[in-house]
Automatic annotation (TrEMBL):
Response regulatory domain mapped to chain residues: 3-121
Domain HTH luxR-type: 150-215
Keywords: DNA-binding, Phosphoprotein, Transcription, Transcription regulation
Entry protein name: DNA-binding response regulator
Residues recorded with modification 4-aspartylphosphate: 54
Organism domain of life: Bacteria
GO annotation terms (biological process): phosphorelay signal transduction system; regulation of DNA-templated transcription
Gene Ontology molecular function: DNA binding
Organism: Streptomyces capoamus
């Protein structure tokens, strides 16, 4: 059973998501929030597996809420799946940078939404990696604000871990990376998990963002 917290400031959208999840086998809605502040509080109380997070909300937006939810998680942090109206939304880039596991357009169909929740809960692959790569490429070119902390040093990674990170950032799945490097899919997961641990990253999406921001992968490359 995948426990889900639904966050959206529009009542009808929130109610529709709750109704869809409640009707689908294998999902349990543990709470619903109308803003980021309430989302942070409910995430601490209910400890969901996945948070469906609206990105543009008054007050505490989805980026700040994502940061706070992941920072306060004691054990396994929830996977955050961002909901957005626009696929090239700078707010979404900020949320991925903050640790969200992926994003989904609000006009996606029910089957796609349920598949996305299942995918991020499993942590196997970033949902729609090619679309996410397009988003990262679009905004990785921007000059970062002066107060943005420097990215971690990739020098702590082994050569194989660097290879896996580069291919991950280019949008390849674990299976595709395994075929490319002639290793098993389980070994790919091990390398990626070690990479995320060494660089103190909470999600595959953060690894993709980091690969672009450090120049390991270049937009359009």
């Amino acid at each position: 059973m995948t426990r889900v917290l639904v966050v959206d400031d529009q009542f009808l959208i929130r109610a529709g998501l709750v109704g869809l999840l409640d009707a689908a086998p294998g999902f349990e809605v543990v709470g619903e929030a109308a803003d980021g502040e309430e989302a942070v509080r409910l995430a601490a109380e209910t400890r969901p597996d996945v948070v469906l997070m609206d990105i543009r909300m008054p007050g505490v937006n989805g980026i700040e809420a994502t940061e706070r939810i992941l920072a306060q998680a004691a054990d396994r942090p929830p996977r955050v799946l961002v909901l957005t109206t626009f696929d090239l939304d700078e707010y979404v880039y900020g949320a991925l940078r903050a640790g969200a596991s992926g994003f989904l357009l609000k006009d996606s169909g029910p089957e796609r939404l349920l598949a996305a929740v299942t995918a991020v809960d499993g942590g196997d692959a970033l949902f729609a990696p090619s679309v996410t790569r397009r988003l990262v490429e679009a905004f990785a070119r921007r000059q970062q604000p002066a107060d943005t902390p420097p990215p971690p040093d990739l020098g702590v990674l082994t050569s194989r871990e660097v290879q896996v990170l580069r291919l991950t950032a280019r949008g390849l799945s674990n299976l595709e990376i395994a075929d490319r490097l002639y290793i098993s899919e389980a070994t790919v997961k091990t390398h990626l998990n070690r990479t995320m641990s060494k660089l103190d990253l909470g999600s595959r999406a953060q690894a993709v963002v980091l690969a672009y921001e450090t120049g390991l992968v270049t937009p359009g490359g």
